[in-house]
Amino acid sequence: GRPPMHPLPHMGPPMPEPPVEAPVLLKRRKLGAAEDGRPPELTGEKTIEATSLRGRELRWQPWPEVNKFNDEWKVTPLRWGLRGELFVLLRRRETGDTRVCAAEVQSPLDKWPVLYTNTPSSSSRSTRYKSFTFNEHLFIVSIDRESGLFQVFHVPDPSSAWSVAFKSTLTEELDESEAFPISRHAKLTVFYGMDRTPYFVAVEPRASGSQRATRVFRMVDPAKAWTLCAEAPALSPKVRLLTVYTKAVRSPNPTEFEAAIFSVDPATSEISIFQVPKDMEKPWSLISKLPFPGDTRLSCIYVPGKPEPLLMAGSPTEKMQKLCHLNLGEWRLSKQDERMPPPKAPVVEEKFSRPMSSLWPEGSREGHDPQTVVALPLDCTADLAVSRHAWVNTPVLPPGGEMPPPGMPPLGPRPPFDYGPPGHPPMPPFHGPPPFMGGPPPPFARPPFDRPPPPGWHPGVRPPFEGGPPPPGMPPPHMPPFDARPPFEGGRPPFEAPPGDWFGGKGKGKGPPGPPPPGAPPALPGPGAPPGQPPQGPEVGSTVEAHNLQKNQWLPAKVMAKHPDGSLDVEYEDKYMEWNVPPPRVRLLPGGAPDG
Q1: What does pTM read for this prediction?
Q2: What is each CA distance from 47 to 25, 69, 464, 546, in whole angstroms?
């Protein structure tokens, strides 16, 4: 007969889901008035503002105080640490002094822990920096715009001195006959191939005539000149670029990714999205092109479990901060298969927007003029795709799926910036000279940055963006992120920051509920509702059908929150949230009422 059934062992309560907290860096400026038919220009101080978006609802967190320090220093993201820390380079605008810091965005900028400070003689105010990760080691590229000095520094530890791995001198104007064809004015954008190799897109802002404005280089050895690739996307000299990573389509490995380059062209007021080819010797393909304000700045927000990041877009002339949904996966598939029609939704789909002036509480910023203030997003992606960021190691959640338990051992060797327990004996990262200097990449079986915490990094203190008790002065979260019922139920709506709310797509306000969509049933009184009064409608937790305006279809959804005006926040099966949905666009399914 059938063998007896044995009860499964007790597995205990489910593991808490990893916290979601995305740092947000903005550059606050003023927009001058248009003169002589010319577009308005940015004026005033370049003030760095920092905060974060927390939880599944990506709610704005409080803005720390700012002072003169925020005007004097520039922030360049360097890399992501093991525990979700973001390490940045601060550069003083007037002198060029630099320091490596941990971006504790819940604290004022001048309070961020300083891990290393460069000597003033080693820096210049005309130097620009760009970082990349090679075989889990951090390197920093510096280009002096005045002297042309080009250097690649190896940073073995965030608290240690930089060592020069490669040095050259770049010409004032581009010389295509040079073995290293790049000028001192080139603007660099880093992306990583699927084999985790770093590449550089160099845009020459002074290119003219028959000169190519764009070149792509492969990093083969940090101690040597970069290798020029045969193909590059066709870009104009004045474009602004952003690297966007998405999960590899149909790949069982959650760490595999694909890269795309977003190009905003001020001359044509368009955004072009290029697919990074798997073979860099083959042409780049244009995924899509659509109208976009030419002065837009972009940044990405990566949420664990989501295949694509959210795109934050800020246009000074529009004075609106937008959150956009990306449909890169669908557009990639349609480009790969000519039989497939183009997706109905655009590749960049605006979901929410709010005036830039509403990001900060009224009266919290001295000289804050709502009519002229603008906020320019600064991208924090850095080396996220090849880091241990939670987005990399978390599988894509299916519609209605749950976050897998965290705590799994990390893949491969422990990454750098893992300081280890207090009192861990220091250990040099290499035996002898670094093996990448002219030799094959090292295996790095043990962590290159495993040493005690440097001065200013206190053991036992919650590092930035890690779970645990909040720091002093920070209110505790209402409930774990990615919970099925968000903490704003019956209270503050999502995306709220003091003061103001995000508005539904295209910059529209919430406004009164509109007329019922086509095919909507007539509004009926809810249970117990007297005649002539509004219906009670579905309760929180109910399974319903909601009319999705983007797809113009009735789709299954779950009620996540209910507001005093009767509007509902619903979540569709694909995890897309829609807020303040009017009652005529929601209908209760049979048996959809919540239990209890």
Answers
A1: 0.69
A2: 10, 9, 22, 43
